[in-house]
Specification:
disordered C terminus; alpha+beta; 7-stranded antiparallel beta sheet; 6 helices; single chain; elongated; 284 residues; 6-stranded antiparallel beta sheet
C-alpha cells in the first residue's frame, strides 16, 4: 500500500502541472473479519440463522462434514469514485479465507471440498442495480502467496459506451447552464432526475456503488473466516472551476454519495472504503 500511495502522489503532482493528461487513480479496499461479530454485522448480510451462523470461528454451520447446505453472504453496498465524479469501469480482486471441513470418502480417501462463486453488481444510486455477474477464479499474485494465501477471484466491471451516450449528452447540456459548478455530477444527476424521474430505470451509466455476493454449498464444519475486496479504477481529473471555491470543501476526496432511496438509513454505503488520493486536483 505504501508503494501505491507513492504512485498516486506522483500522478496527482503531474496533474497540477498539466491538465491535458489529467487523471485520477484510486484503489479502495473492503475487508470483513467473520470471526469478529462486531465487524461482520455492519459490513455484510447472510442466509437465515437456520442455514448459516456466525461465531468466533467464522461464518458457516456445524454438522457432519459430508453434509452441505446452500448459503450466501453479501457485502453492504460500498461507495466508489468522488462525490462529484463517479467511474465507469473498475477492476476488482477478491480473496476469501476459510477453515475447510474434511471428510472420508467411501474409498477411504480424505476430501477437503472448496466450492463457491463470487458475484459483483453496481448501481448509480443505491436503488437501481445491474445484474449480478460472476468473477473468475484466479491464481494468487506474488505478494498474496505469503500475505494472503486464500482463494482468489478477479474481473472487470465496465459500462458500455452505448449505456453512457445519453448521460454524456445530458452532462454537456448541464455544463452549458448557469450553475455553481459545471463539473459537479451529483448536481447534474439531480437535474437529470427532475427532467426524467425514471432515468436510471432504463440505463446505468456509471458505477457509484459496488456490492459483492458469495454463494456456495457450505459443508459441515466449514467456516469462512474473512473476505477482502480491492477495487481499482481511473477517471479523468479535468474539470471546470466552480464559481465559489467553497464548493470544493468536503467534496474533492469524498466518495460518491447520491442516494435515490427514500429510506437511505437501510442502504447506507459501507464506511470501510476510503479514498486514497490526498492532493488538490487540477483546474481548467
Amino acid at each position: 500500500m505504501k508503494i501505491l500511495r507513492t504512485v498516486l502522489m506522483s500522478v496527482v503532482a503531474g496533474l497540477v502541472a498539466s491538465t491535458s493528461t489529467a487523471s485520477i487513480l484510486d484503489t479502495k479496499s473492503l475487508a470483513i473479519d467473520f470471526t469478529d461479530i462486531n465487524d461482520d454485522r455492519v459490513k455484510a448480510t447472510w442466509s437465515k440463522p437456520d442455514l448459516l451462523t456466525v461465531d468466533t470461528n467464522g461464518i458457516g454451520w456445524d454438522g457432519e462434514a459430508a453434509n452441505s447446505r446452500d448459503g450466501w453472504f453479501q457485502t453492504i453496498p460500498s461507495a466508489l469514485g468522488l462525490s462529484w465524479r463517479p467511474p465507469s469501469a473498475v477492476s476488482v480482486r477478491v480473496s476469501i479465507h476459510q477453515k475447510p471441513s474434511e471428510f472420508v470418502l467411501n474409498n477411504g480417501q480424505k476430501s477437503t471440498p472448496y466450492a463457491g462463486n463470487v458475484y459483483v453488481r453496481f448501481s448509480p444510486d443505491l436503488k437501481h442495480w445491474s445484474t449480478w455477474q460472476v468473477l473468475q477464479a484466479s491464481e494468487p499474485q506474488d505478494y498474496e502467496k505469503k500475505q494472503n494465501p486464500g482463494r482468489h477471484f478477479s474481473g472487470q466491471v465496465r459500462v458500455p459506451n452505448s449505456e453512457r451516450d445519453q448521460y454524456g449528452k445530458l452532462l454537456s447540456e448541464y455544463a452549458r447552464l448557469d450553475v455553481p459548478w459545471k463539473s459537479d455530477e451529483d448536481a447534474a444527476v439531480r437535474w437529470i432526475l427532475e427532467k426524467e424521474t425514471d432515468f436510471f430505470a432504463t440505463q446505468l451509466p456509471f458505477i457509484g456503488y459496488i456490492q459483492f455476493r458469495y454463494e456456495a454449498s457450505f459443508y459441515g464444519g466449514e467456516r469462512i473466516t474473512s473476505f477482502k475486496a480491492n477495487v481499482s479504477y481511473g477517471m479523468s481529473g479535468i474539470h471546470s472551476h466552480p464559481k465559489d471555491n467553497d464548493a470544493y470543501k468536503g467534496r474533492l476526496l469524498r466518495s460518491w454519495s447520491f442516494n435515490a432511496n427514500q429510506t437511505p438509513e437501510d442502504t447506507e454505503p459501507s464506511p470501510a472504503l476510503y479514498p486514497k488520493p490526498a492532493a488538490r486536483l487540477p483546474e481548467k
